[in-house]
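---------- Forwarded message ----------

FYI, see the Putative competence-damage inducible protein record below. Original note from H. follows.
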Amino acid sequence: MKQLNAEIVAVGTELLLGQIANTNAQWISQQLALYGVNVLFHSVVGDNLTRVHAEFEHAAKRSDIVIVTGGLGPTDDDLTREAYQLLSGTPIIEHKPSMDKISSYFDRQNGTMTPNNKKQARVFEGATILENKVGMAPGMIITKNNTIWIFLPGVPKEMKQLFSDGVLPYIKNKTQDTTTIESTMLRFIGIGESQLEHEIKDIIAAQSNPTIAPLAQTEGVAIRLTAKAETMKQAKQLIADTQIKIEDKAGAYLYGIDDETIEQKVFQLLLEQRKTVAAAESLTGGLFTDRLIGVEGASAICPGGIVCYDTKVKEDLLHVPSHITRDIGVISAECAESLALNVRSVLGSSLGISFTGVAGPDKVEGYSVGTVYIGIVDGKGTKRIKKFIFNGDRQTIRKKAVWKGYQLLFNLLK
């Protein structure tokens, strides 16, 4: 297999200002690693012609492949094409299929296309054009002085489509790699990254093919299994065999495969058990219910939810006794239990779940910011009332509470 060295240049002042994260470079590096392409440099440069040109000069001297993301849009500060033309002298021409696509879009929208939108259809003469099936600006691949230049939009969903459909097959051909690569993500809840790694340390120590990569996520922990084989069937079998070993060690925490979410898993379990759930949400303000009803078919397992932020709503609509709200407090196990019990009764569900706590910025009833009570009750008298202390700002605490609620519900149903 031919060895190629690559670098990734991200163009965009918004990246330098920290307004968005450069997740494109991370994702591209992960994909290239699967094909044995070494990524030696990551760089970010603002929307300035002189600086972009200078960065391209550096890249041309040291890499076999230069992948550029961003700067292909319609505005005056989108200067990637101009910087490469300054470097290479390559003419820029209008790509008629892309221009037709842009014109057609505005026709369908009954809108007026401004002249600057034509800029997105401009490509380098002699380049291989990659069709953008998600957005407007196409991708391009062109070789100059033995350096392969790949130009992609900065919008992640557009970049990923172009990279997957056009760039990876091109690179695979260049490296003369005849193997098939398959990857699967195992998703876990209720266990930390270090604990999960400890549970499967013997499997990790013995890994060769597939490779095992534990990954900390915003929510939960994931393990990526990547296998290489002569055929897709062989690669998938290698992954399946390793997955079985991991499930033997940590299967109690496994909730999803690949893109499966915790709310999809809870939906599936509720459906299988012919149960429904309703939520009383004070602290979370409807976030739990919003995620659940985002799953197609959720009406079969969720009759609704009640946002009970104000104490009067807790008392009048969900019948929380006044001796709890006034004498014990709304930030309490007793309030969480009453909310879960009564929302189940009011909405006629099999299960009731509740969230009450302090998201900040100030203490409530003497409780510090991050104090959260979550309650779950069912019709058989089973109840789980838990207290948690979450760190973070207001929105982070609310999101963590929802995630923990799904964990408790998943564990109960499983």
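H. also flagged this: The chain has a mean pLDDT of 94.
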